[in-house]
Amino acid sequence: MSIVLSDVTFHYPKQTSAVLNICAWSLAKAEQAFIYGPSGCGKSTLLGVLSGILPVSSGQLTMLDQRIDGMNSRQRNRFRANNIGYVFQQFNLIPYLSAIENIRLASYFANKLSNHQLTNDINTLLTTLNMPSQDWGVPVRQLSLGQQQRVAIARALINKPSVLIADEPTSSLDHANRDAFMALLMSIVAENNLSLLFVSHDMSLSQYFNRVEALSDINQG
Ligand SMILES: Nc1ncnc2c1ncn2[C@@H]1O[C@H](COP(=O)(O)OP(=O)(O)OP(=O)(O)O)[C@@H](O)[C@H]1O
Fold first, then answer.
1. Which domain of life is it from (predicted)?
2. Which residue lies with its CA nearest to atom 2 of ligand 1?
């Protein structure tokens, strides 16, 4: 299994009631799930817990056969850098750095590759993602939104994660770019046997997934 939640609760500090209360939920290796729900239902909180940014308040969270709930924040950060790719709603790229520099930074935190291998891997990824090479060195704020989102995928993949988490990654894209992005993402996920957890309020994106669930069916919080 890639992810197993068992009696997991999460509440923000000073909150009386839990935002998340999930008895049992799991994602198999190389499985792709789409989770939807309206604004405020806890989607970002769930992804925060799964990526180890937020610690569970109680219960067991196991990812790639390792218990996350017992780890401190430094251990969770290292686990995330090595095993989880995260594509954010607003991309979260550093605007004045180039595509190459943004991707290098993500690799720095995992510290897995030699400089030479990293350069090769970045070149391969950006080529696979159809980024014209003249755009690789310019500050990403000068790229189109569609190109920035492709840089964000490359950054999420540079450490060869087994699990990819995507939080409304198409919300800034227009229709044509959105479809192109989804097709590209799903082909990369299939080629690399990645587990994918994709959350959105946009049900039209569910067509790309076999497994589609409402967060309200999983979460009693
Ligand atoms: N830092 C925080 N401190 C306290 N409460 C929070 C915090 N962040 C979120 N919440 C609350 O937790 C609940 C779930 O929020 P969350 O951001 O996870 O929802 P969401 O489904 O991702 O919403 P959206 O689709 O608008 O991003 C909301 O009631 C929100 O007010």
1. Bacteria
2. 12
